[in-house]
Amino acid sequence: MLSLQKLWTRTGVFTVLLLPLSALFSAVSGLRRLAYRRGWLASVAVGVPVVVVGNITAGGSGKTPLVIWLVEWLRAQGYRPGVVSRGYGGTGRGCIEVQPDSRPTEVGDEPLLIRIKADAPVVVGRDRVAAARTLLARHPGVDVIVSDDGLQHYRLQRDIELAVIDAASGLGNGWPLPAGPLREPGRRLRSVDAVIQVVRGAAAPRAIDRAWRVDYTAGRAYRLRAPREKTALRDLPPRDWLAATGIGRPQGFFDMLQAQGVRFSPRAFADHHAFRPQDLPADGAVLMTEKDAVKCLVFAGADWWAVELDVAPEAGFIHWLDARLKQ
Fold first, then answer.
1. What confidence tens digit (pLDDT) does each residue in 20-40 have?
2. Tens digits of per-residue pLDDT, 265-309?
């Protein structure tokens, strides 16, 4: 995956060779979109408003932190939100409600992180409609559903679509999978309700129509063995830090640490990497994202730390979202 993401940043011989497969992918996905647009395939309403947080690129845009922020913000406005997710990387079948002690190998690392951080009900399932119905059956008080990913899961009828774009990588080389990172054509951004542009580290926002800026910065850190004891990054003890992560765009994590003045050696793994004890030094000083941390809790070393993520949307987006929900 890491190699593909590097290839997707430019046009080269290998990506050109993949163009026939990209043409086939575009044709199939385009026919599917047309089928829903013409009503040949029906989307299903689940009885409460649905907000989809997704992207049109493969991996690494920063959807999950925005989902967590959105759930917490909705609760602060008086809503009772719940979350549905595919549970990518999990082995569970059917619809599964995520618990704080669920295994990430069963439910997926991102849904588990959402359940722990946002403290909201989360149900995972490949069929997002079935997952939403399961969520509402078990938690009848839920009055708004946030779909983590699912922009392309058209069967679930949605009221608001938010497309997340990473400011550093944008749309890559602009080609469809597998020659490029696009799940859908770039023009799909014109049909969503809002584009959310995630800015991390020193990345500069891109010129995208109807885009709102959301800044992601490294927050406090805590030992995996003592999660309630949190420390500002600048107050961390001097160590020979290893920054290790298995997220879609690892450079975003490294950039945020550098912006905070942390000195470290980087080590990148594939997105959703299933960490094992031998992957990291048991007696070393390790910094990782919270998404990685949920997979390392049972074998964490004494000096392994998770770094929180501070999510700060611009005021205009918050005002827009509030107005849309009140409609």
1. 999 999 999 999 999 999 999
2. 999 999 889 999 999 999 999 999 999 999 999 999 999 999 999
Task: Check residue 110 and report its DSSP letter.
Answer: H
Tokens (6 digits) for 305: 């730390």
Is the distance from CB of 153 to CB of 147 less than 8 angstroms? yes
Q: What are the backbone angles phi and psi of residue 212, rounded to the nearest 5°?
A: -105, 145
Q: How many helices (H) and strands (E) does the chain have?
A: 10, 13
Sequence length of the chain is: 327
Rounded Cα–Cα distance for residues 325 and 176 (Å): 32
Contacts of 81 (CB under 8 A, 6+ apart): 70, 71, 74, 75, 120, 142, 143, 144, 145, 146
Distance CA 257, CA 252 (A): 9
pTM: 0.94
Peptide bond into 250 cis (omega under 30): no
Identify any residues that bridge with 44 across adjacent strands, giving them in sequence order: 156
Taking only Cα atoms into account, the Rg of the chain, rounded to an integer number of angstroms, comes to 20
Per DSSP, what are the bridge partners of residue 264?
241
Retrieve residue 200's tokens.
């991390």
What single DSSP character describes residue 181? S
At 176-234, the pLDDT tens digits run 999 999 999 999 999 999 999 999 877 778 878 789 999 999 999 999 999 999 999 99
- The three-state (H, E, C) secondary structure of 42-105, written as one string: CCECCCCCEEEEECCECCCCCHHHHHHHHHHHHHHCCCCEEEEECCCCCCCCCCEECCCCCCHH
Phi, psi of 321 (to 5 degrees): -65, -40
Q: What DSSP character marks residue 182?
A: B
Cα–Cα distance for residue pair 44/34, rounded to 1 Å: 16
pLDDT at 186: 93
Per the CB < 8 A criterion, the answer to whether 186 and 56 are in contact is yes
Task: Name the residue among 183, 30, 153 with its Cα closest to residue 86.
Answer: 153
